[in-house]
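Lay summary. Proteins are chains of building blocks that fold into shapes, and those shapes determine what they do. In this project we predict the shape from the chain. Here is one chain we studied, written as its sequence of building blocks.
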Amino acid sequence: MLTFLDIQNEIKRRSTRDQSGTAFDTAIKNVANTSLFRLSREALWKTLRRATTFTCATSTEEFVLSPQVSDRFFMWHEEYGYPYVMKYIPEQKFLSMGIDKDSTGTPTHYRTWTTDMIKAQPSAASAIAVSSSSASDTTQKINVFGIVSGYPDYEELSLNGTTAVSSSKSFTTVDRIVKDSTTVGRITATSNTAAVTVAVIPAGDTTAGLIYRKVKIYPLNDSSFTMNVYYYKDPYRLVNDNDVHELGHDFDEALILLATAKMNYEQNKEDGDKYFGLYKDELKSLRKTNVDKIDWFPKLQRQGQSSNVSPLIHPFLAYNQAGSYYGPRTY
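And here is the predicted shape, written in a compact code that computers can read:
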């Protein structure tokens, strides 16, 4: 499998015909990563399948999924004594039906709405404290964006290694927390005197911040148990020369072709069209063996239509899980 440096050199060779210069290095790194993200969205690739679990605590409605869980996932549990796939219901549909969302029992449905860079919001207006897991992180800046006294605001904090540094402003909510450069350690941001972990930023420069997806369940569980999550992962960007991307070696050529097409479009549209055509042809080949079969996603049916699971709350909703038609629709 090609490393990030191998991919950069191949893109440079095909687009500039010169591997000795450095003028295009930053641009090539950026275009390689944007092409990686584009390629990961093209289909439900098997190599991006992941599985995780979380503890479904008693009488809790909202849970935070693992970092980088995309919008393509499903949840299941075994509280009935067998694998039960949770049913998806849109938040607006759920709220419009006037259901008591605080009722308890064994969860059967889930909703999603919030996806952001915050793991948990402050429980009350609070200063935000940041620290690193490495004592050597003393020059990097951490920017906190959110709401202060009812208005959008931000504050820049300077890391002091493992010693926590607190903001002078009290944030009622936080929109995002990002770092300005690579760090040796993992950055943790807390609020309410470290009682709440607001966000975590990984070591290195893989990403300036994590994306968290939240889910809400219905009914609220009346006993603690393990919830299983199967999902497709959003890949991290490539940073170091020896990094390898998460799609696998089969995707090296497609990634190089798409990045080369983007680079060539800036200089010669004809060359850009040629490489983009080669990319689309490579994509067709990848789809033959690397795309997941859409055979396990739950389809929302009319109330009472299924004989194997409990009746669905939402009576007239179908859910497409493929291509440009991804998402809910009515019959």
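What the prediction tells us: The first helix runs from residue 4 to 16.
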